Amino acid sequence: MKTWKAWGAQLLFGWMNLVLAVPSIYLMLGMPLVMRQHGWSGTEIGLFQLAALPAIFKLLLAMPVQRVRLGGGHFVHWLWLMAVLLLALYVGIGRENLIDQRAMLFALTFAISIVATWMDIPLNALAVQYLPREEQLRAGSIRSAALFLGAIVGAGVMVLVQARWGWQAPFALMGLGLVIGCLPFAFLRSKAGLQAAETEHAQPGFVADWVSFFGQEGAKQWTSLLLTSFPFIGAVWFYLKPLMLDQGMPLEEVAWTVGIAGGITGAVFSLLGGRLASFLGAARAIPIYLLAALLSLILLTVSVWAQLGPFWLVTSAMLIAASMGAVSALLFGLTMFFTRRQRNASDYGLQSTIFTLARMAVPIAAGIVLDRFGQVVMLSVLTLGVLFAFVLAWRVRHSVGASTEVLLRSQ
After folding, report:
1. Is 126 left (phi over 0), alpha (psi -120 to 50) or beta?
2. Which residues contact 159 (CB under 8 A, 6 or more apart)?
3. Per the structure, how many domains does the chain have?
């Protein structure tokens, strides 16, 4: 693949990952500020987060994408179908201000969550199908950077847009971004159609499909990393804003530090982490990145325990953002490595479900520990979780690294 063509494809997939991240982040993380201003209770805001549940069912949503053929450009047509549905939902939710219509707002948000989750499957199946194996670590780093930028846009910029130009403006911008991203996929239809035709022959049942995924060399070890490498450091990031507020930092300073500077740092180190991993190889990169996450979390824990003050809190927050960006870039890239070209959608859906379940479960458990035992104990428990992930990564690094080398040679 020519360099300019590869970069064009990478930017296209990165843009679409950004476009799909923004609505969920805006509705889940940005909208609660508006809700609170309009008298929503804490319980109502908390229950509203259940609209994110479709993310854990990506495994099931992948089934029809893998098996129901929509013409020659199979995955592109699935992408466009989901895009049309998402645009229709933007029109529905943006037609009038629904902030006081709780049930309707939840229903439309839930529907947007389903369609955006569903659309993510053909999008990343196309990335696996179209990009050479040697480009997939870079694709993972670009996707990770897009998610960090999506957090800034969705939880920050879109809230400001809504405050300045009204309820409809964010959804109009999100719809425009979606249309701009979908049009270039017309040029990928021929390749998508060819790959689909090559794998059209009889496919095994769903359970056999999933079992065969774990039959890949190194897949069981990779799954253990997928379950442990991100959730603990991700949970720290989830609680970092309230933790820094409790340490006495002003709200505006916390917003700039974690929301803006942290997001930019995570995006930059996502790109750097993917680049560095291509030189180090997966066997070296996995434990190095997790060791960096472990050291940054130890620094945060000590800073909170010893009351070291804002400088060390901010420093540890930036280090956590950097290590989290590098870890997530590597995980997204390796997810593509372990997605078989004949099972693009189903393998990606299975891995995404495994990742999402762990990512959602750990913050819930951490919240319980925080309420019962306080910040230092919670941070200590999460530090032990990252330590466990590091030890596990050290033990399985050669198996996972050898598997990625095999996949690269088979390209």
Report:
1. alpha
2. 26, 30, 31, 33, 34
3. 2
Answer yes or no: do 89 and 161 share one domain.
yes
Q: Of 201, 223, 256, which marks where a domain is finished?
A: 201
* Tokens, residue 225: 């990393």
Q: Which residues contact 409 (CB under 8 A, 6 or more apart)?
A: none
The number of residues making up the chain comes to 411
Per the CB < 8 A criterion, the answer to whether 125 and 1 are in contact is: no
User: CA 320, CA 300: separation in Å to the nearest integer?
Assistant: 9
Is residue 269 within 8 Å of residue 323, measured between CB atoms?
yes
Which amino acid, residue 85? Answer: L
Tokens of 295: 């050291």
Given 201, 232, 251, the domain boundary residue is 201
CA distances from 404 to 108, 270, 389, 395, 399 (A): 41, 19, 20, 16, 9
Question: What is the residue-level pLDDT of the chain in tens, covering all 411 positions?
Answer: 556 577 788 899 999 999 999 999 898 888 877 887 788 876 787 688 788 888 888 888 888 888 787 767 778 999 999 999 999 999 999 998 898 888 999 999 999 999 999 999 999 888 888 888 778 888 889 999 999 999 889 888 888 898 889 999 999 999 999 999 999 988 876 555 444 444 444 455 556 666 777 777 778 888 899 899 999 998 898 888 778 878 888 877 877 888 788 889 999 999 998 888 878 887 888 899 999 999 999 999 999 998 888 889 999 999 999 999 999 999 988 888 888 777 777 888 888 888 888 888 888 888 888 888 888 999 999 999 999 999 999 998 887 777 666 554 444
Residues 34, 98: Cα–Cα separation, whole Å: 11
Rg over alpha carbons for the chain, rounded to the nearest Å, is 21
Range of the domain at 345: 203-411
Based on the domain organization, do 285 and 332 belong to the same domain?
A: yes
In a domain, 143, yes or no: yes
Rounded to an integer, what distance in angstroms lies between the CA atom of residue 102 and that of residue 90? 17
**CATH number, residue 282:** 1.20.1250.20
Class of residue 37 by CB neighbours under 10 A (exposed 0-12, middle 13-18, buried 19+): exposed
| Residue 68 CB contacts under 8 Å (≥ 6 apart), including other chains | none
Question: What is the value of pTM for the model shown?
Answer: 0.86
Q: Is residue 41 part of a domain?
A: yes
Cα–Cα distance, 135 to 119 (Å, whole number): 22
